[in-house]
Amino acid sequence: MAANFFKALLPGDLDAIVVYLRSVPPVRNAVAAPVYRGPVRREAFALADRGFSEADMQSKVRRGAYLATIGHCLECHTPVEEGALQFETALGAGGRPFLPSFVKGLPASWTGAVSRNLTGHPERGLGAWSDAEIKRAIGQGVGRDGRRLQEPMPFAWYAGIHDEDLDAMVAYLRTLPPLAR
Ligand code: HEC
Predict the structure, then answer these.
(1) Dist. CA 104 → ligand 1 center (Å)
(2) Range of the domain at 81
(3) In the chain, is it the N or the C terminus that has fewer CB atoms within a 10 Å radius of its CB?
(4) How far is Cα 13 from Cα 24, in angstroms, rounded to an integer?
(5) Is the pLDDT of residue 103 over 90?
(6) Residue pair 176/119 in contact by the 8 Å Cβ criterion
């Protein structure tokens, strides 16, 4: 539960989510109490802690930062070392492994994936990608070379993002300092 990212939600957007949830038809489903096999850690995500304002939405890069925050891209696209996401030193550098034991319910053919470097690094990151290529990866799950991106990259959830919002997200991603990891 990416609450360290979702705390960035502007009040109007949070209200809209609650209105939507209330519109979901009731379904009876007894859910077992959660079992925590490890400590629940939520490293502070600085952009969310600093927060956003309605005025920020007028700036393309700030709006993109907001959208990428509530889309919690960098939760997956930042390496984990000694059990902690390295937001301070390796923001967006990728390399976080996802194993079948972590992501349940996928076909047996899925053997895991490693998140990619989203920084501006020209070889390791998105530095040499066009805006259109980045937008296609986010919204359609197609890699630069045309391959289909694997789970858990949640492109199906991002498929409805409006084009101008994708442009803003790309503008923000382009501000991530290049990291060669
Ligand atoms: C739940 C984890 C998760 C989230 C959230 C996530 N991604 Fe990903 N993403 C991945 C993984 C894993 C891959 C690698 C998939 C593969 O190798 O096929 C990936 C691949 C990508 C790629 C392709 C990069 C390349 O070099 O091929 C881009 C671009 C990307 N993600 C951008 C984003 C953006 C932008 C967001 C937020 C809007 C986001 N991702 C959110 C896990 C995630």
Answers:
(1) 18
(2) 44-173
(3) N
(4) 17
(5) no
(6) yes
Q: Decide if 30 is inside a domain.
A: no
87-101 pLDDT tens trace: 999 999 999 999 988
Ligand 1 pocket: which residues have CB below 6 Å?
A: 68, 71-73, 75-77, 98, 113, 115-116, 118, 134, 137-138, 143-144, 149-150, 152-154, 158, 169
Residue 180 lies in a domain: no
Which positions ≥6 away from 5 have C-beta within 8 Å?
A: 45, 48, 69, 70, 72, 75
Q: Is the pTM higher than 0.70?
A: yes
Query: In testing the pocket of ligand 1, which one of 116, 119, 169 has its CB within 8 Å of the most ligand atoms?
Result: 116
CB 126 within 8 A of CB 173: yes
| Angle in degrees, CA 155, 21, 58, rounded to 5 | 60
Q: Which two tokens stand for residue 98?
A: 């996802």
As a three-state string, the secondary structure of 148-171 is ECCCCCCHHHHCCCCHHHHHHHHH
Domain count, the chain: 1
Residue 10 in domain: no
> Do the domain assignments include residue 7?
no
